[in-house]
Specification:
The complex is a heterotrimer of chains A (about 500), B (about 150) and C (about 140). Chain A is built from 22 helices and 5 strands. By secondary structure, chain A is mostly helical. The chains are: A mainly alpha (about 500), B alpha+beta (about 150), C alpha+beta (about 140). The interface between A and B is large, with 54 and 51 residues.
């Protein structure tokens, strides 16, 4: 039995199981307002369905981004070393990062991955085509990723490594380009060694947090009807068909439960002869309540991202010059202190705090479930507050510095060009008088949402309502503490 | 159960409104003029945190010690350029409470966008309101959890 | 070895066959990809270079000018574009009416100079820019027409 056939068999069994134990519970509400299972199928609109089924919908945005990325690469190598006069810094760390945090992740899940130029050369070579779906064995070795590495741990490690150099990477065009260029080179190489988008799934440092935070996103791709999938034995969405590739992300679209590893490439829409895939709008945070697939790797991703928002806010937006000098590698010793502190806080202190509150929850609820499960499950309520803290931080980057974009499109390399006549547009902070209010509001929204998710997770983890209510108490305290700390960093 | 939830929402609202007046009441000392010397260098302001009271007329004497720097104060629209060897005086009345970032306005090296200091205009109403909302919501949630958790 | 060669030739033939079976869509995509990868970046560069064809670009950085020697002909207008690569600098040619102060990073400045007679002119930084500010200078060599 080939691996792919086995995968199909497993999917069918899982799908059957999923339909069998569908409970008839009362509708749960987010914030007491929006039903958890509220969905709006966007692809009911025929034009959108046609658009998503077209192979060009993936190719064209990716090609545009590839062009921009090449300009950025060139700017990092030959352009000015002045960060805010170089397209590499302005487009990546002001425009792209803010767009990810403020728009793409919350409202479009991993849509970025569907148009990311970094792995696309590898993918084109692997498929030996640009847009057309050609039916042949993929180029390259198509190895399977080692089982032991099938998690977010590697991504967490890579992210920590990159974060230690964040001061350099976000201010020097050459460093930005060195990072992105090496992602591209490594990615392209690994596309030829490992099957499909193994690289994106298990190694890309950006993909890791996109994956975790995509679970909060207000959009999802899911099969329209489970029975149709169960009854349909050819499993085109996994194996591919003449119209599209089998899921490049190694997911089983028939059985998609969470957004973590769905890269919104829409291949399943193209493959499915039953036209059974749908794109849905849903309330924020739905996937945080999905019990299957939770793991310690994702918990650590949640700690790392939450901690990174705090450390970056303190270094980049704080008044402490010494901290900036450390992050800026003024002295090796200072930087070592910064890196060690960053890694300790992100991967040690926060997990310890969370561990303490999880232990308390476990004790208060009467130790009916394993402590590890309590720890893992409760880590997911750190996602809303984490993302909203990042949104607050992104406002502080975008509002003061967004105006550089207007200048940079006319003079991408900082050589004094004036391509579109906007090269002399002066630095203009926009709406910075609203910044504290925006940041505080983001945090409070995140706090309320996290509380709600924590409560729901508690009820899911401890079936007895009283036990669940007791278990949630330490989590409320923890979330309150985290939010208060961010509030102080942002407006205090 | 449902009634209690609404009750807690109403109670939270009352506390918030009451608190809004409370954060305003706290401190209202007579404004008195302040003169603060601010030194700009790559890439920090010394002092990094400036604290004044709402309504104070503030005079900032800004110097640059290495290269040309700038000064832009969020929320007050104060912009200055500071050339080494010269002293720039920025005057404003601290009418907007809260914490505001002041940042370098003239590119001064790699960390220029991160060259930031904080101006605290006391009482910090934004922070107090935020903490009040946080406390109210948190306390309501704790109360609800306590009530529900009592019955075994 | 022979089997290897055979495998390679078979693989190549298969690929060639597939290339022939490429549809118009794929060719259009290929065109777009080539544009994106080669023509686009190349034309951006070409356009920029074309715009810069009569300008001498001088980069100012702590604490030197690059280039620090410029050549011009007496009586002929000479265009200089100044760009700062790190902090705020300045520029002044002693003995000629040519000065830019301040020269802010990210904000390029252009000036046109006409030296009336041959000789060597010094240019120097006019804004204090750190420890070795005083050592930041270059020379403009003007030759007879």
């Amino acid at each position: 039995m080939s691996a792919e056939k086995r995968m199909v068999a497993r999917t069918a069994a899982a799908a059957a199981a999923a339909t069998a134990d569908a409970p008839a519970a009362p509708r749960d509400l987010f914030l007491g307002l929006v039903p958890v299972d509220a969905r709006l199928e966007l692809t009911k609109a025929p034009w959108l369905r046609r658009l998503l089924r077209s192979r060009w919908t993936t190719f064209l945005p990716t090609a545009l981004n590839l062009f921009l990325f090449l300009v950025i690469l060139a700017a990092g190598v030959v352009g000015t070393p002045v960060g805010n006069a170089n397209i590499a810094i302005v487009f990546i760390w002001i425009l792209w990062w803010s767009a990810l945090m403020l728009v793409l992740v919350p409202f479009a899940s991993r849509l970025w991955c569907g148009m990311c130029p970094l792995p696309v050369l590898g993918e084109w070579v692997q498929r030996f085509s640009l847009v057309a779906r050609r039916w042949h064995r993929p180029l390259g070795l198509s190895l399977k990723w080692p089982k032991k590495l099938r998690s977010m741990w590697l991504v967490n490690g890579v992210f920590l490594g990159v974060a230690a150099f964040s001061g350099i990477i976000t201010t020097r065009p050459w460093a930005t380009v060195a990072l992105l260029g090496s992602i591209m080179v490594l990615g392209t190489a690994l596309f030829l060694v490992y099957e499909r988008r193994t690289f994106c799934r298990y190694l890309c440092p950006v993909g890791g947090f996109l994956g975790l935070y995509a679970n909060f996103a207000a959009i999802e791709i899911r099969p329209k009807s489970q029975p149709v999938c169960v009854g349909h034995k050819s499993k085109e969405c996994i194996l591919g068909s003449v119209a599209g590739h089998g899921c490049p992300w190694l997911e089983q679209p028939t059985n998609l439960k969470r957004n973590t590893y769905c890269g919104l490439c829409f291949e399943c829409f193209r493959c499915c002869s039953q036209d059974n895939m749908g794109l849905y709008v849903r309330p924020f945070g739905t996937d945080l309540l999905v019990e299957s697939h939770r793991g310690l790797d994702e918990s650590w991703k949640a700690f790392i991202m939450l901690g990174a928002a705090a450390v970056y806010s303190a270094t980049m937006m704080g008044p402490w010059g010494t901290l900036k000098d450390w992050a800026n590698l003024r002295s090796l010793g200072g930087w070592a202190l910064f890196a060690a502190g960053l890694i300790t806080v992100l991967a040690g202190v926060l997990p310890a705090l969370h561990g303490a509150s999880a232990w308390l929850s476990w004790r208060l609820a009467g130790r009916t479930v394993p402590l590890k499960k309590v720890f893992t499950n409760f880590a997911y309520h750190l996602v809303p507050i984490g993302l909203l803290a990042w949104i607050g931080f992104s406002f502080a980057i975008l509002l003061p510095n967004g105006s550089y974009v207007i200048r940079i499109i006319s003079d991408p390399f900082g050589w004094g060009w004036n391509l579109f006549g906007t090269a002399h547009f002066a630095w203009t902070p926009v709406l910075t008088s609203w910044l504290p209010a925006l940041q505080a509001a983001s945090l409070l929204f995140g706090f309320v949402y996290s509380l709600d998710v924590a409560w729901k997770i508690a009820r899911q983890t401890f079936p007895a309502p009283a036990a669940a209510a007791r278990a949630v108490v330490p989590q409320i305290v923890l979330l309150g503490g985290i939010t208060a700390a961010f509030l102080w960093l942002f407006v205090g | 159960m449902k009634g209690r939830r609404y009750l807690s929402v109403v109670a939270g609202g009352v506390i918030l409104v009451a608190g809004f007046f409370a954060v305003r009441l706290g401190a209202a000392p007579l404004p008195h003029p302040r003169t603060i010397t601010l030194e700009a260098s790559q890439w920090r302001y010394t002092p990094g945190i400036v604290t004044v009271n709402e309504g104070d007329p503030v005079t900032l004497i800004i110097k640059a010690s290495d290269v040309t720097h700038g000064f832009y104060l969020d929320g007050y629209n104060v912009t200055e350029t500071v050339v080494p060897g010269q002293t720039v005086t920025a005057r404003f009345v601290a009418t907007r409470s809260g914490r505001w970032m002041f940042r370098c306005a003239v590119t001064c090296g790699p960390f220029h966008p991160y060259m930031i200091g904080w101006l605290r205009v006391q009482p910090n109403v934004t922070l107090r309101l935020g903490l009040l909302a946080l406390g109210t919501i948190g306390a309501t949630a704790l109360y609800a959890a306590w009530e529900e958790g009592r019955g075994r | 070895m022979r089997t290897f060669m055979k495998a390679v030739s078979m693989w190549a033939r298969q690929r060639l066959f597939q290339l022939r079976a490429v549809g118009t869509g794929e060719l259009v995509a290929l065109g777009i990809a080539v544009t994106v990868l080669v023509v686009g970046p190349a034309s951006v560069f070409a356009y920029g270079r074309w715009m810069d064809r009569h300008v001498a670009v001088v980069q100012a950085r702590q604490w030197q000018y690059a280039p620090n020697v410029l050549h011009a002909t007496a009586g002929v207008p000479f265009r200089i574009r100044l760009v700062s690569e790190d902090v705020v600098h300045g520029f002044k040619i002693i003995g000629l009416d040519a000065q830019v102060t301040p020269l802010i990073p990210g904000k390029s400045m252009e000036l046109t100079v006409t030296a009336p007679k041959p000789g060597t002119y010094l240019y120097m930084c006019t804004t204090y820019c750190g420890l070795k500010h005083a050592l930041m200078f270059g020379k403009l060599i003007v030759t007879a027409p």
